[in-house]
């Protein structure tokens, strides 16, 4: 037996030596069997892929329980001032997104166990396994009949599953997603809400700027780049990326411009049309990690369970709502504007920019109109009906008043006043603001009509002179008052007491005490 085994091994080794480097199959003339040549690289690659698959499955299964909406709301309330309704909607949407993931993927654990067992079997290959008996006889040398048999078995299984579905009386309920559209004035906290909620989630979250998107085939980012950013945030784990949330920022900038329907709008209506199937649920080809798009190496991502949240300022939308609500009072013979849509609404908004004396009254009027926004108003603005229909939840955000702007300056964890105080502390200088100064800053931001974004510009302008004078000086404290904010006077500087002045003061006090004792 030992001599026969050695003889057979010798014949096998001779076959390997005679085989061409490009051939992976060799045939034994003695037993008429085919063998597969496995190199050291192949075995290591199989072991590595098996371990990588197990790690991905573990990250997919081991997931924290979903946080309740109240806890998400409390976290948002610590970083974002106001917008209570928008925070409630986002908190509930995120919580329902977690529940939908666990409901729509009930068999993930069984699939994971099967893949884990397959990976364990793959790890059995070692570099010593140079020859592996394939079990293919010379009658089906290339395994054609075996492959055909496997295909037939798969088709039979599919037909059996189809008949079972037809015969079943009950069916599994599948939860569908409800995409969200946030609309409100600039600087009201739409992007900040997205950035804040992304830090407290256990699912991938991607923020995409719609202003850079173009239709496929044109210069700019393709629509698939939205899912590519989500896949990158998921560390290229496809299963985890298919459960993520995508935030589409500045979605109003892809609205169709009226009056140029004879031309192709590649950055507006074309982008909306390309997003339709992705928003509803489709298979999207995304470039693979570390691969150029021209090489065609892509991975398929299913967007069925991906939640999309869009936001935009929609400047002039309040004028469209106002015109719609007042149509019934105009009558049949009343003149109609010749240029409806976004362009006319924006023009009316700009014309009315300086007519209202009070910025608070203007903001209150716009907020009241945005509460009555309907789908037809968004369609008249420039969004196509198919795009609007895929966002069933529309959330209007209100403008920020003077009291809220003062809170934004001081209360949130990443407020502006603590940021500038830290900058001054690095130079060992104390920065102080009076209450009247904070109110004046908030009033100036309301007059600029840029929302919370105008606060930083005002702060930079006020503290520019102080930040120029402080380094290398003897200034100990900088005090900002209402007059400083208005530009009536420079900041108040309290300088450090020099050493010689301190000694002079101590000697003077000592002399005064001695005179008092002598008298």
TrEMBL record:
One of its GO terms (cellular component) is mitochondrial matrix. One of its GO terms (molecular function) is ATP-dependent protein folding chaperone. It holds the Pfam family AAA_2. GO terms for biological process: proteolysis involved in protein catabolic process. InterPro entries: AAA+_ATPase, ATP-dep_Clp_protease_ClpX, ATPase_AAA_core, Clp_ATPase_C, Clp_protease_ATP-bd_su_ClpX, P-loop_NTPase, Znf_ribbon_CLPX-like. Residues 400-492 form the Clp ATPase C-terminal domain. Residues 47-69 are annotated as: Disordered. Keywords: ATP-binding, Hydrolase, Nucleotide-binding, Protease. The keyword Secreted does not apply. Residues 176-327 form the AAA+ ATPase domain. NCBIfam families: clpX (TIGR00382), PRK05342.1 (NF003745). This is ATP-dependent Clp protease ATP-binding subunit like protein. It comes from Argiope bruennichi.
């Amino acid at each position: 037996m030992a001599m026969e085994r050695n003889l057979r091994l010798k014949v096998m080794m001779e076959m390997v030596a005679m085989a061409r480097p490009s051939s992976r199959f060799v045939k034994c003339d003695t037993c008429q069997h085919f063998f597969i040549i496995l190199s050291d690289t192949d075995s290591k690659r199989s072991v590595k892929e098996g371990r990588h698959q197990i790690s991905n499955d573990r990250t997919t299964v081991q997931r924290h329980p979903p946080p309740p909406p109240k806890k998400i709301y409390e976290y948002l309330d610590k970083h974002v001032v106001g917008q209570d309704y928008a925070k409630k909607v986002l908190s509930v949407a995120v919580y329902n997104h977690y529940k939908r993931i666990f409901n729509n993927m009930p068999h993930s654990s069984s699939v994971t166990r099967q893949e884990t067992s397959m990976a364990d079997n793959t790890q059995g290959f070692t570099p010593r396994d140079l020859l592996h008996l394939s079990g293919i006889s010379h009658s089906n040398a290339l395994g054609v009949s075996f492959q055909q048999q496997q295909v037939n078995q798969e088709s039979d299984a599919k037909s059996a599953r189809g008949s079972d579905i037809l015969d079943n009386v009950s069916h599994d309920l599948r939860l569908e997603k409800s995409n969200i559209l946030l609309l409100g004035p600039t600087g009201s906290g739409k992007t900040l809400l997205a950035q804040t909620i992304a830090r407290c989630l256990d699912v991938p979250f991607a923020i995409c700027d719609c202003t850079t998107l173009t239709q496929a085939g044109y210069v700019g980012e393709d629509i698939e780049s939205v899912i590519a950013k989500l896949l990158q945030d998921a560390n290229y784990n496809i299963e985890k990326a298919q459960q993520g949330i995508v935030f589409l920022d500045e979605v109003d900038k892809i609205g169709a411009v009226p009056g140029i329907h004879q031309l192709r709008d590649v950055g507006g209506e074309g982008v909306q049309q390309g997003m339709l199937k992705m928003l509803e649920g489709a298979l999207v080809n995304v470039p693979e990690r570390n691969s150029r798009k021209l090489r065609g190496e892509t991975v398929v991502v299913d967007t069925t369970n991906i939640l999309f949240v869009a936001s935009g300022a929609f400047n002039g939308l309040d004028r469209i709502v106002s015109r719609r609500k007042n149509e019934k009072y105009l009558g049949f013979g009343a003149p109609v504007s010749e240029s409806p849509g976004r362009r006319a609404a924006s023009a009316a908004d700009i014309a009315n920019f300086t007519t209202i004396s009070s910025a608070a009254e203007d903001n209150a009027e716009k907020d009241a109109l945005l509460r009555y926004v309907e789908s037809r108003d968004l369609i008249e603005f420039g969004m196509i009906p198919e795009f609007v229909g895929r966002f069933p939840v529309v959330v209007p955000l209100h403008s920020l008043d003077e009291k809220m702007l003062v809170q934004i300056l001081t209360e949130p964890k990443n407020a502006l006043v603590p940021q500038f105080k830290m900058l001054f502390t690095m130079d060992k200088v104390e920065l102080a603001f009076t209450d009247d100064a904070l109110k004046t800053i908030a009033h100036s931001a309301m007059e600029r009509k840029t929302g919370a974004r105008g606060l930083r510009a005002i702060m930079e302008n006020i503290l520019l002179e102080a930040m120029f004078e402080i380094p290398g000086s003897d200034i100990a404290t900088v005090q900002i008052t209402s007059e400083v904010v208005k530009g009536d006077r420079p900041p108040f500087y309290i300088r450090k007491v020099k050493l010689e002045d301190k000694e002079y003061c101590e000697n003077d006090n000592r002399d005064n005490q001695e005179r008092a004792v002598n008298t």
